[in-house]
Design brief:
Layout (H helix, E strand, L loop, with lengths): L47 H12 L10 E6 L8 E6 L7 E11 L10 E9 L3 H4 L8 E4 L11 H4 L23 E5 L3 E3 L9 H21 L7 E5 L3 H13 L4 E5 L3 H10 L3 E3 L1 H10 L4 E6 L4 H10 E9 L11 H5 L4 E4 L5 H12 L7 E5 L3 H9 L6 E5 L3
Parallel strand pairs: 8-9, 8-11, 9-10, 11-12, 12-13, 14-15
Antiparallel strand pairs: 1-2, 3-4, 3-6, 3-15, 4-5, 5-7
Helix pairs in contact: 4-5, 4-10, 5-6
The structure holds zinc ion (ZN) (2 copies).
The site of one zinc ion has 7 residues, from loops.
Length: 403
């Protein structure tokens, strides 16, 4: 989900009125665990091959049962404000699910109150229906976790019209059911997207953060704001998502001019490295645009403060789009008269679709988008969350189980 660590641009005004923007409330992830019985499962070894072999055997009806190994998971429970380390049984797949060995679980700010909605892993067990419904998934498949976890039912209006990011029946992974901060996790087969490459070609940490930090700006720019080749795009705030947005606009959507704006010079330099044509501080932005008669077709605001919204409204061209992706302030004030005079459109969007995740993974494979990510051990989960809350993380983080 789009939420960003630190204000990149000072917040100008604290008071706000309505404007219909999304507020940020999530259900704490706490799913009932499917605890396997001893007759279902036994001796799940820690090595992936052993686990795959044993689990596949058991699921296909093989007998032997002796015991089971537990796994580490970091989860919230009702009333908890911090995730806690739990020792749990390795889950067994329901008929339409797979179990994956988690290779990386992404962490982002919206995970305060969740248990990992970004993930990458290796399939180690298939539920009884999966071979028929998802022939592309096999034991050993390297997959990305599609966090919106849509129902994909034909009767679902959102899912049947390609808007599965908006499925009303979805129980988001890590935000309503157990997530990826665990050694293993069960998830619906329909929420697995095969990665177009090996773990050497695209690291699990990169895949994990791509499921949100690339997918969210991709959906925003491509599908919602429909950035066209040759257009001028301004990315306000080039932290984790904003940098990916610069690369998406330039390398995937063939924007003409991509401008990065941030207070941090290090971020501006990174933006230039990933494809920005111009990198400007907020103080320099308006003067530069005026002086060079640059009009902005689409502003993607990765901060979402009143200050950045007002700035976006001023610099966007008549007929242009201001797309709010960041959620640093829960409410923003709009001034309809000024916006009317510009025929300006304000957009917000949520995460991305499964098909877009397929495209995003291909773009990562093709080197068009290179997400920055830092790897940390899963066992340090609580510590890393503390660092994130304190604003000490410098980039996106993926938690890596030790297995
Ligand atoms: Zn996220
Ligand atoms: Zn649905």
């Amino acid at each position: 989900m789009p939420l960003y660590t630190q204000p990149k641009i000072p917040i100008a005004r604290p008071t706000l009125a309505l404007n219909g923007l999304r507020t940020h409330t999530y259900t704490r992830g706490f799913a009932t665990l499917r605890r396997p019985t001893v007759t279902q499962i036994q001796s799940l070894h820690k090595s992936s091959t052993a686990a795959s072999r044993i689990m596949s055997k058991n699921i296909s009806g093989s007998s032997s049962t002796n015991g089971q190994e537990s796994m580490v998971a970091f989860r919230f429970a009702p009333g908890w404000t911090e995730p806690h380390r739990s020792e749990l049984s390795i889950p067994m797949p329901q008929p339409n699910e797979v179990v994956i060995k988690v290779l990386a679980g992404g962490l982002c700010h919206s995970d305060v109150g969740a248990s990992g909605h970004e993930g990458a892993g290796e399939v180690i067990a298939l539920g009884s229906n999966v071979a028929a419904t998802h022939p592309d998934l096999k034991v050993g498949s390297y997959i990305a976790v599609f966090g919106p976890n849509a129902c994909f039912e034909a009767s679902c209006k959102a899912c049947s019209t390609g808007k599965d990011n908006l499925c009303p029946n979805a129980v988001w992974i890590g935000l309503g059911r157990d997530g990826s901060w665990a050694d293993y996790m069960a998830l619906p087969a329909s929420s697995c997207v095969p990665v177009p490459g090996t773990t050497q070609e695209i690291s699990p940490a990169v895949v994990a953060v791509a499921t949100d930090a690339v997918l969210t700006p991709y959906h925003a720019l491509k599908t919602c704001s429909k950035v066209q080749p040759g257009q001028t795009v301004l990315c306000l705030g080039v932290g984790g998502l904003g940098l990916n947005a610069v690369a998406i606009a330039k390398n995937c959507l063939n924007a003409g001019t991509v401008i990065a704006c941030d207070m941090r010079h290090s971020s501006l330099n990174q933006a230039l490295e990933v494809g920005a044509d111009l990198a400007l501080t907020p103080e320099a932005l308006e003067g530069y645009l005026k002086e060079h008669s640059i009009s902005i077709d689409v502003v993607a605001d990765f901060c979402g403060t009143q200050h950045t919204f007002d700035l976006s409204s001023r610099v966007v061209a008549p007929g242009g789009i201001v797309h709010i992706v960041g959620l640093m302030q829960p409410k923003l004030e709009i001034t309809p008269l000024e916006m009317m005079a510009k025929d300006m459109t304000v957009k917000v969007s949520f995460w991305g679709t499964k098909q877009e995740l397929v495209e995003v993974l291909q773009a990562v494979k093709d080197g068009k988008v290179k997400p920055h990510v830092e790897e940390r051990p899963l066992v340090d989960c609580e510590k890393v969350i503390e660092e994130m809350k304190a604003g000490h993380l410098r980039s996106r983080v993926a938690l890596i189980p030790s297995h």
